[in-house]
Amino acid sequence: MNQQLIEKIVGEVLSQLGNVEVAQALPTNAIPIAVSARHVHLSQEHIEVIFGGGYKLTKKDDLSQPDQFAANETVVIAGPRGSIERVRVLGPARSLTQAEVSWTDAMKLGVKPPLRDSGNINGSAAFTMIGPKGSLYLDEGLIIAQAHIHMDPHDAKRLGLKSGEYVTVEVDGVRPIAYQNVKIRVSERYCLEMHIDTDEANAGLIKQSAFGHIGRAVEEHPRLKEQNSLPEIISVKKHHDYLKKLLSNDDIREIKENEIMIEKGTIVTALARDTARELGKSISIRN
Known about the structure:
Layout: H1 3-25, E1 30-36, E2 39-43, H2 44-51, E3 59-62, E4 69-78, E5 83-94, E6 98-100, H3 103-109, E7 115-116, E8 125-130, E9 135-145, E10 148-151, H4 153-159, E11 166-171, E12 177-186, E13 193-197, H5 198-203, E14 210-218, E15 240-241, E16 246-247, H6 249-254, E17 259-262, E18 267-268, H7 270-279, E19 282-285
């Protein structure tokens, strides 16, 4: 056995021992937190469209939830304003295809996905998915996942919680933060873990393996106004192509973009130039 491998094994053992000590020191309502990066779940039908007929996902790493894994396969997801490459596929294959992104990702794509529980994709945002063997345009399936806690019935009983309840989870640290409307999901197939997306983690400077604690239950979740609760995506062109021969003060005020491109020979009035300076807009001649 080489030295590098020995050091790796020793490091993992010490890490595990450390986690046990940490876990023993935690309060009974402590919840381990996992940060969930953008990813997709695929149906077998769509796996074969993207990766080829008869294709099966291959395991890269096990995930914390039993029988779930990060696949070696990745895809490109695209919207009207942009695309994101190397989006990890999670396995195994599911009955429905869905993509889970953060709001930051959604702005890059130019879409407005609803805040949803995983698996609830009815009426969600459309997107395109591209793989090595094909591509798909889906009318729905793109969501921002609602923060949630997986737990088995034993933990649910210990914590006095039921599946479908909402709680507030508080996290101490450099930037203390409280997550509201965290949904409880109970199943024999789950192990105790809270899932948040990268935007939520960044807001609290939270890294993988952090812990939170359940602060209080939410009696009647005020939540999830879905589409209406999310801000509009403001589409701003980089410049405005002005094609008329005279650029006036009124034109400057009507143009929303900060950079105005004009043809060589276009007359720009003195008042228009003053207004452009006042509004912080630039006027450039198109090459």
